[in-house]
Amino acid sequence: MTRLRRTLTIQFLVLLVTIFPLSNFSFAQSNGEASAPQPPMTEKKTKTTTIHGDTLTDDYFWLREKTSPTVIAHLEAENAYAAEMMKSTTALQEKLYNEMVGHIKETDDTVPYRQGDYFYYSHTEKGKQYSINYRKKGTLTAKEELVFDQNELAKGLKFFSVGAFVPSDDGNLLAHTTDTTGYRQYKLQIKDLRTGQLLPESFERVGNVAWSTDNKTIFFTTEDAVTKRSDKFFRHVLGSGKTDLIFEEKDELFDIGAGRTRDKAIIFVGSESKTSTEYRYLPANAPEAELKIVTPREADHEYDIDHRGNLFYIRTNKGAKNFRVVTAPDSNPGQQNWKEFIAHRPAVKIEGVDPFADHLVLSEWESGLQRLEVLDFKTNQTHRIGFPEPVYAASLAQNREFNTDVVRYNYQSLVTPTSVFDYDMNTRKASLLKETEVPGGFNKQNYQSERLFATASDGTRIPLSMVYRKGTKLDGSAPLLLYGYGSYGISIAPTFSSNRLSLLDRGVIYVIAHIRGGGELGEEWRDAGRMMKKMNTFTDFIAAGDYLVKNKYTSSDRLVIQGGSAGGLLVGAVTNMRPDLFKAVVAQVPFVDVLNTMLDATLPLTTSEYIEWGNPNEKASFDYMKQYSPYDNVGAKAYPAMLVKVSLNDSQVPYWEGAKLVAKIRALRINNNPLLLKANMGAGHGGSSGRYDYLREIAFDYSFMLWQMGLAN
Q1: Which residue among the candidates 212, 685, 689, 703 is catalytic per the annotation?
Q2: Number of domains in the chain
Q3: What is the average pLDDT value for the chain, to the nearest integer?
């Protein structure tokens, strides 16, 4: 998608003022000439909500009116103001963009992976925004076959993204889904890879897709058009003109997902809330069979399934906070038939279970680091794959084949580029297939990675992952970017970024705070930062910032924080709590209007989120959420510089949350630090889809950070 990047002239501002009726623009003038640009004035239209005897006043509720020309004009005015305020960094943005492009191999191939009779891979070409997908039959020396060129599919579109990519067992057909708006509503189509033609079938708002063994029956999930809750599971026989609804999830706290086990024997549909799951299944070779249930849902019971032979391998937290593994016969998998396979280890969280013909691989988290553990079914012995660095990220890659002794994994660290390994589970030998090339003079020996620990107010040790260029002074003078997330039990691994080199090479220290609410230290870590303990997430992050300043890694006037989505909630909350601690804030698609959003069940995702944040229709939850909701805690205080980024077609966090936050801070703050709202008018939650457009976005963000760090020259 082409990013809207404007260098605003005074004449263009005057033109916009003429066109749009509201007084959205103003300028400070002296001696008849324009001087410093002034931010758009956001009209107040007060809306009140009374609940639990409390009245919420929202002056900017009207910004929700996405189809209103006035709202669009306001967002464009904000973009114009942001462009004008960032005008002095135009050359820096271009320099950063060129550096980042210079650190990627623009024409490149991914490592091919095998699925059935074919090897699949993607290719990028210099100057093209999107990947081109290919395959080869039988061997890597076979003739290359074009699957599809995403650049061709994206022509004329502002946004393009591929979701599902599922070949049939015989390799003749490809089920794939695409999103052309950024709203994460995907359309399912079937391509005949023998002819290159699309079949007449197409289905809207599709999530997951699975084929049966007959190569003509397809299963898929769909989401509700308004709430975006995935709630229906369909079966369709190609060419039949008939689509059967075979399961509907009616509990608004649950979403559904579907798939097929690696051994291709089972098609499953799982219902999942934030704290409970339930699975149903049918044989892949009997697509007309009735769905059977594994075990009915229970409060706080989470489980998932995979299959091997005639057994289900079930990862369950039943009696095991950080999960254990049991087996059950696929003919009768109820809990009465569960047999302990891998016992619970309180210090180790089992994140995933991947059975192969002769081995099983466990993906785990221990002491805040990822582990891969291999079990040999023949010997019943286990061992862990070894990794060379103290701080790293390691996870399974594409492993589509069941009958194999080789497992593929990705490895990287804050200083080591993404690397793909094939690991022989019998000989225990890892073979490097590819380390991502980083052009432009990169040498990992120039960088230092460390693991630190901050101490929270209750004595809890908070892990911090740090990277910097060797030679950076650790005397409090270095600028530092502190990143955090801390929600949904999601673990933030210390991964490599070639884009980040543009910061590190300018002397910026980069730190990830692994705060409570995430999953890095297991389920207890997650639970200690959610619902009525959510404040721990914010106070942990503040403790991390205080630690970094106290120990002279940086100073408050050079400390910038960044977070997106629920991480945007994080940085919004801590900015209200400790505005003095941070020089600047970058909040990307931030979830900051917590109470108003969670009180509106018509918005996408709201009801299923009750188990993460609480239901504000209940007074105790309302009172607790009101303590930290960023929008509701804006006050008359001196705020750090802020860049708030939103996307017009965001289905996860509506654009108006960040827009309202900016308007309210402008109205109430007692200082005049830069406060910018940048709206992407043609993308969704993840920003621009084209790889070059995305780098333009990062260059803008980095320029803002460096400007505030005093490194904009």
Answers
A1: 685
A2: 1
A3: 94
